[in-house]
Amino acid sequence: MKKLKVTIWNEFVHEQEQNAVGEYIRSIYPEGIHRYLAQALAAEDVEIKPVSLDMPEQGLPDELLNSTDVLLWWGHCAHAKVDDALVDKIRKRVLSGMGLIVLHSGHLSKIFCRMMGTACRLRWREVGEKERVWVVSPSHPIAQGLPETFVIPHQEMYGEPFDIPDDGKIVFMSWFEGGNVFRSGVTFQRDRGKIFYFSPGHETYPVYHDVNVQKVLGNAIRWCAPAEIVPDRITPQPEPLEKITTENPLASLDTTELHK
Asked: What is the pTM of this model?
């Protein structure tokens, strides 16, 4: 059985801070969110590699990126530190077929904003309120095996309006104790690549310990997995299926430069 190659990228900043917040986060995720998720999502059909911003080539050297089937992205306070050249490479890989799962505050990551083409702004409030997640597309593969609704006891509120494109398919909606609602699980298609944004998750609340959240991410990995990845795609120039008799008015011109 060929295993899916999954890479979990984490900026890995808050977990290493030498203060009370950092100490508390380490009590929840001792080795970082990326390593915790790698352990929680381990399965026979996946090969998971956790990486982080502080590693050589910001955790994603070409060899690793070009062999990744699905990339999970967790970022919060270090979006600006991600090299634009790396973002370009990830975007190209997604368009070629690699799956991309963007987690929580990754909505403001360079790669998600680039793939969406919008500001991706939202409303937020952090008071540790309850979040109720509703499955609004129960037939979607990412929702399989989940209850109709589940509760996250403490969470940072993300609320509408959420500035994302209208072509997204909503799989999950959330209601928060303070009254706000949010499109908390949305899928997109960009060329050959599938993208899933999922907001439940936080560095100081143990949201990724929740079995339903883990189920969502496991399902999402398999949904995002590409049938094939076609790198360096060139726009095809197919031979006509029928005979063309219309005279080409540009036949006498060399238009090669126009199509490079």
From this structure: 0.93
101-116 pLDDT tens trace? 999 999 999 999 999 9
11 in Cβ contact with 76 (< 8 Å): yes
Across the range 182-206, mean pLDDT stands at 97
- For residue 233, pLDDT over 80 is answered with no
Q: How far apart are CA 115 and CA 131, in angstroms?
A: 27
Count other Cβ atoms within 10 Å, centred on residue 247: 6
Q: With 80 as the cut, is the pLDDT of residue 157 above it? A: yes
DSSP alpha helices (H): ranges in the chain?
Answer: 20-28, 33-40, 62-65, 84-96, 110-116, 211-224
- pLDDT at residue 260 above 60? no
Q: For the chain, first and last CA: distance in Å? A: 41
d(CA 176, CA 163): 19
Two tokens at 184? 């908390």
Q: What is the mean pLDDT of residues 184-210?
A: 97
Q: Hey, what CATH topology would domain 4-120+185-234 get?
A: Rossmann fold (3.40.50)
Cis geometry, peptide bond prior to residue 153 (ω within 30 degrees of 0): no
What is the Cβ-side half-sphere exposure of residue 215, based on CA atoms within 13 angstroms?
11
* Alpha-carbon torsion, ordered 15, 16, 18, 19, to 10 deg: -10
